[in-house]
Design goal:
mainly alpha, 9 helices, 2% strand, globular
Length: 261
C-alpha cells in the first residue's frame, strides 16, 4: 500500500510542479522573449543551501496533495487513522500497517519528501550528463505556465508574486529561485520521458527489455532510480541537517497557513 501511496504522491507532485506540455509550436518561450534550449552546460546549479529549500518545497507539496485528496475525495491513503488538514501534521499520528506503531504524519511527509527530492535530483543530474538531452519549446512553455499560474494565485490574494511565495514557502523563496525550482523539475520530468522513449525503441528491437520498459511506462521506475541513487553522492536522508531544518520551516509555514485559514 505504501509503495502505491508514494507513487500517487510522486505523480501528483510532478503534475503540480510541471504542467502538461503544449503542442502548438516548437519555439521556446519565456515571459519576455525567445530563448535557446537548455543543454547540460546551461543547467541551473543547486547550492547546498538550496537543497534544503528544494526539500521544503517537496514537503509542502506532499502535505498539499494529501490535504487535497482528503478534502476533495475523503481518501485517507489506507493508513488506518484519518488525517485532518486543519491540524498540524506534527500533532497527528497514524498507525504503521505492519506493527501498529504510531508515526507522526510530519515524519511520514519528511520521508516522502526525501524520496521525491532524491528522484528528481538524481534524474536531473543524470540528464546533465547526457550530451544529447536538452529541453524544447514545450518545456519552456510548461515552466512559464506554472510561473503564470503562481502569479495568478498571488493576484487572487492581492499579493505581489514575491510576497505570495514568501508567505507560502518562506522568505528564501524568491521568484528567481522558484523559477529555478520549476526548471529543475521540468528537466527531471522531461528526462524521464526520454528514458521511456529509449526503452520503447529498445523494446522494438529486443523483447527482453519489455518488462523494464513497461515498468517505466507505468510510472514505476523504482529499479532504475535505485540504481542511480546507489551511484549518486547527491542524495538526502531525513536526518541530514538541511532536511531537519527544511522540515521545521515547512511545518512552521503549514501551521501559519492553517491558522490564517
Amino acid at each position: 500500500m505504501k509503495k502505491t501511496i508514494a507513487c500517487l504522491l510522486i505523480s501528483f507532485l510532478f503534475l503540480a510542479a510541471v504542467s502538461a506540455c503544449s503542442t502548438e509550436s516548437d519555439e521556446p518561450q519565456t515571459s519576455s522573449e525567445t530563448v535557446a534550449a537548455i543543454n547540460k552546460e546551461g543547467f541551473p546549479v543547486i547550492s547546498n543551501d538550496e537543497r534544503g529549500l528544494f526539500f521544503r518545497y517537496y514537503y509542502i507539496s506532499v502535505w498539499n496533495s494529501v490535504c487535497s485528496n482528503v478534502k476533495n475525495d475523503g481518501f485517507q491513503f489506507g493508513y488506518g487513522d484519518n488525517f485532518d488538514p486543519d491540524v498540524s501534521p506534527a500533532k497527528q499520528h497514524f498507525l504503521k500497517e505492519k506493527d501498529g506503531t504510531p508515526i507522526l504524519w510530519s515524519d511520514e511527509f519528511a520521508a516522502l519528501a526525501v524520496k521525491d527530492f532524491n528522484r528528481v535530483i538524481t534524474l536531473y543530474n543524470d540528464a546533465a550528463k547526457d550530451a544529447d538531452f536538452e529541453l524544447d519549446g514545450n518545456d519552456f512553455r510548461s515552466i512559464n505556465d506554472n510561473l503564470e499560474h503562481a502569479r495568478g494565485a498571488a493576484s487572487e490574494k492581492d499579493l505581489s508574486f514575491a510576497d505570495y511565495l514568501s508567505d507560502y514557502y518562506g522568505d528564501e523563496f524568491t521568484p528567481t529561485f522558484f523559477e529555478k525550482l520549476l526548471t529543475v523539475g521540468q528537466i527531471s520530468s522531461s528526462y524521464k520521458k526520454e528514458l521511456q522513449k529509449s526503452f520503447m525503441d529498445k523494446r522494438s528491437k529486443d523483447t527482453s527489455v519489455y518488462e523494464e520498459y513497461s515498468r517505466l511506462a507505468d510510472g514505476d521506475y523504482q529499479d532504475y532510480i535505485d540504481k542511480l541513487l546507489s551511484e549518486s553522492s547527491d542524495v538526502l536522508d531525513v536526518g541530514d541537517a538541511c532536511c531537519v531544518e527544511g522540515k521545521a520551516a515547512a511545518i512552521a509555514g503549514i501551521e501559519k497557513k492553517i491558522s490564517a485559514d
